[in-house]
């Protein structure tokens, strides 16, 4: 099926969340032909040769508004060009939605999110939909970063933890400062050490390709069924024949 090309009518907000991540709030000119599921992503289009994926960070209920979290990488000319356009409130086009890393219609198992960097974006979208609807399902968010300052919007999962008794937030720092008193190490290894009965969990993983693959392989080695590990990167590799 061909996904519609979407026009932006307005940029509602454009601000920095930390040193290198921008929050972008877009308003669609017409969302009548656009239906996405929490966890999916869009392509930002500069021209036919310049299209890059960005996860939707907002829940579907917020349409026609869409939230993106974009990391400013000096080595990525495309990202810098997109940020420059957005900063000037220049109209851009979107294509989508894409991706099968979505929640089931009926949630019956404990869910654990393991994310790093802007992998927090799709987890945020799913959690904002998931939490109010599933008060009896245990839900964990393990969120990794090198330094605690990289944990942008850290107050949001803390608010969820206060609001929902079934939600548990676990920030993990791999290169902690002396002031850090929380969990340390690689985020997926910490999650695997802490969680009981890994085979009974449903895992959603988002972050760098290296992090996703390392998490996937270690979960498989620990006896988790591959069908219970969800990540866009894994689906892309399967489509390319690089992963079973």
Strand content: 25-35%
Number of E strands: 12
Looking across the biggest beta sheet, what order are the strands in?
A: 4-3-6-1-2-5
As a percent range, the share of helical residues equals: 25-40%
3D shape: globular
Uncertain parts: none
Q: For the terminal residues, how far apart are their CA atoms? A: 25 Å
Number of helices: 6
Question: Which series of helices and strands comes N to C?
Answer: EEEEEHEEHEHEEHEHEH
Q: What is the CA-based Rg, rounded?
A: 18 Å
Task: Give the rounded overall mean pLDDT.
Answer: 90
In words, what does this structure look like?
This protein has a six-stranded antiparallel beta sheet, with helices on one face. It has a six-stranded parallel beta sheet with strand order 10-9-8-7-11-12, sandwiched between helices. The chain is 26% helix and 32% strand. The protein is built from six helices and twelve strands. By secondary structure, it is of the alpha/beta class.
Short summary:
The protein is of the alpha/beta class.
Question: What attributes characterize this protein structure?
Answer:
244 residues; alpha/beta; six-stranded antiparallel beta sheet; six-stranded parallel beta sheet
